[in-house]
Design goal:
This protein has six helices and three strands. By secondary structure, the chain is mainly alpha-helical. The longest helix is centred in the first third of the chain and has 27 residues.
């Protein structure tokens, strides 16, 4: 089986995607903290549940988020303790559980989106240029990227 290596452009795109993701997540996380809101990973879990009908099995949630299974388990317990989700037993299967977002969880997610959404929009505007990936790479390689 032949395995081609990435081109220099593909490598630049990969590095840029990872760098920009880290930078944007850090900026959004700082803004959420500044507003007295929880970390971005809370939003991700709540949004995943809400966008998928409000109720998922843990393994389904794991496929829908970027969280590792062990982190997902700890975070789920934390969000349950805060009343943001419920862990519901499946009646016919003792091992089968569902995670279900509560009204309180939906309200928190909406408050977080009021901060997160506009910041994400501002960050993504930089990549709407006609030259596509070249603009993306240039922003990621800028000396002041992540220092705003």
């Amino acid at each position: 089986m032949k395995c081609d290596l990435p081109t220099p452009l593909e490598t630049d795109i990969w590095v840029a995607m990872n760098r920009i993701t880290r930078i944007v997540q850090a900026e959004i996380g700082a803004a959420l903290k500044s507003a007295g809101l929880p970390p971005l990973k809370w939003y991700d879990l709540l949004w995943s549940l809400e966008s998928q009908g409000g109720r998922l099995r843990p393994f389904e949630l794991g496929r829908d988020t970027i969280l590792e299974q062990s982190n997902l388990s700890h975070l789920s317990k934390r969000l349950e303790a805060e009343g943001l989700i419920e862990i519901v037993e499946n009646n016919g299967d003792r091992r089968g559980k569902f995670l279900q977002i509560t009204d309180k969880g939906k309200a928190l997610r909406k408050r977080m989106w009021a901060i997160y959404g506009p910041l994400l929009h501002d960050q993504m505007k930089a990549f709407n240029a006609v030259d596509g990936w070249q603009s993306f790479i240039a922003v990621a390689q800028a000396p002041d990227a992540g220092n705003s």
